[in-house]
Amino acid sequence: MQTYTLAIADGVLFACLPDEADISAAITDATATNYGFGLSLDIVRGAVLTNAAGPEDEVVWQEGSDSELLDAQGRRYRYAVRRPS
């Protein structure tokens, strides 16, 4: 199962990349043009992208009307969750 790392700040999803990808470059690109310095990002690793969150899933991001949650192949999902192992 592919897991993803998300970078979130102030209710904005800045990056969603496979865990093995270099998220630091994506964060630098996104924050340089949008917010600049002083941004406090929450980094969430090991998230599973899904269209249905289960009862034991911890929802770490939910797609909204102004955001898209896409996987590495460009497929759209509604939720990023952490699942108990």
What is the topological layout?
Elements: E1 4-9, E2 12-18, H1 23-34, E3 42-50, E4 58-62, E5 69-70, E6 76-77, E7 79-82
Antiparallel strand pairs: 1-2, 1-3, 3-7, 4-7, 5-6
Question: What do you see in this structure?
Answer:
- The chain is built from one helix and seven strands, in the order E-E-H-E-E-E-E-E.
- It is mainly beta and 85 residues long.
- The protein is globular.
- It starts with a strand and ends with a strand.
- The strands form two sheets. Strands 2-1-3-7-4 form a five-stranded antiparallel sheet, covered by helices on one side.
- Helix content is 14%, strand content 41%.
- Strand 1 (4-9) and strand 2 form a beta hairpin.
Question: Could you list some keywords that capture this structure?
Answer:
single chain; 85 residues; mainly beta; five-stranded antiparallel beta sheet; two-stranded antiparallel ribbon; 14% helix; 41% strand
